[in-house]
């Protein structure tokens, strides 16, 4: 089982749960989203989120999870990275 398969399995286990997503957009800047993992595809997964009152769908690759560009956190206080 490769690291990519492990990342896919971890994302699959989070499907449907409310999570906070931290996305590294470069140059020490981060964007945060609250949402749920909606669909899983062979190379990407989609996240449903609310932005400015409208529902949006964001897509990320499993490689983003492996390279820690995308991190998942529970929506509770005392949160820590779920996939670390």
Structure report:
By secondary structure, the chain is an alpha+beta fold. The protein has helices at 3-13, 62-66, and strands at residues 18-26, 29-40, 44-51, 54-61, 70-74. The protein has one domain (3-74): SH3 type barrels, CATH 2.30.30.100. It is 19% helix and 50% strand. A 5-stranded antiparallel beta sheet has the order 4-3-2-1-5. Strand 1 (18-26) and strand 2 form a beta hairpin. It is globular and about 40 Å long. The two termini are 18 Å apart.
CATH class: Mainly Beta
CATH topology label: SH3 type barrels
Q: Count of helices?
A: 2
Percent of residues in β-strands: over 45%
Compute the number of strand runs: 5
Rg is: 12 Å
Termini separation comes to 18 Å
Q: In which order are the strands of the major sheet placed? A: 4-3-2-1-5
Characterize the biggest β-sheet. 5 strands, antiparallel
Element order: H for helix, E for strand = HEEEEHE
What is the level-2 CATH architecture name?
Roll
User: What structural category characterises the helix and strand content?
Assistant: alpha+beta
Number of domains: 1
**Average predicted confidence as pLDDT:** 90
Low-confidence stretches: none
Q: What oligomeric arrangement do these chains adopt?
A: single chain
Q: Give the CA-based shape.
A: globular
Helix percentage range: 10-25%
